[in-house]
């Protein structure tokens, strides 16, 4: 250190550069959720302690059943306006995922069903079509639409945070299974966020945003009120 301090500024520059490189290469922002510090930390969903994630069940109470989940085995009920059903296998549904930085979901589609525009704020999505064929579209932050018809056995990827949709294009049912690099993956569904929030976004914000009359906004809001 002493020699470095006595020299000109060039060594400082390299010192700072190498520290920056080290910090960047270890930064958790390069992946998604932070890395675990132990073999497992099966979530105690009932704990009153609040941390970034969930506290662990005592290891003495952990058993084989903590490492298996049946949530994705069941077909979702698509009897709804979108004719689709999202089943999440995230940490809330599968506590064994706690601290592991991954989760999954399944989306069932009746014929013509849609998973409306949405984003996953904390995770990239890697999906595979299991049954049928779907139109998968995503829009970049430069407003460019990228879309593909994806068939059974084929994969798609949705970069983290980008708005995307999935539409069943086949004649029968469709099923997709996706993996996420976040244990607590959730979907921010655009129409529900804009028109179904609680409390609701003031009509003035929405009429000015979409440049339509208040009656149009009220009509759309009535479809998302729950
Ligand atoms: C599916 O959901 C609809 C509407 O909520 C309901 O009427 C129906 O009983 C459900 N079907 C099954 C099999 O749970």
From TrEMBL:
Q: Which cysteines are joined by disulfide bonds?
A: 41-56
| SMART domains named among the record's database cross-references | Cupin_1
Signal sequence residues? 1-25
Binding-site positions, oxalate? 105, 120, 125
Does the entry feature the keyword Metal-binding, yes or no? yes
The alphabetical list of record keywords is: Apoplast, Disulfide bond, Manganese, Metal-binding, Secreted, Signal
Q: Which residues bind Mn(2+)?
A: 118, 120, 125, 164
Q: Which GO terms describe its biological process?
A: plasmodesmata-mediated intercellular transport; regulation of root development
Q: Does the keyword Secreted apply?
A: yes
- Cellular component, GO annotation: apoplast; plasmodesma
Q: Which InterPro entries match?
A: Cupin_1, Germin, RmlC-like_jellyroll, RmlC_Cupin_sf
**Family statement:** Belongs to the germin family.
Q: What PANTHER family does the annotation carry? A: GERMIN-LIKE PROTEIN SUBFAMILY 3 MEMBER 3
Q: What is this protein called?
A: Germin-like protein
Which source organism does the UniProt entry give? Stephania cephalantha
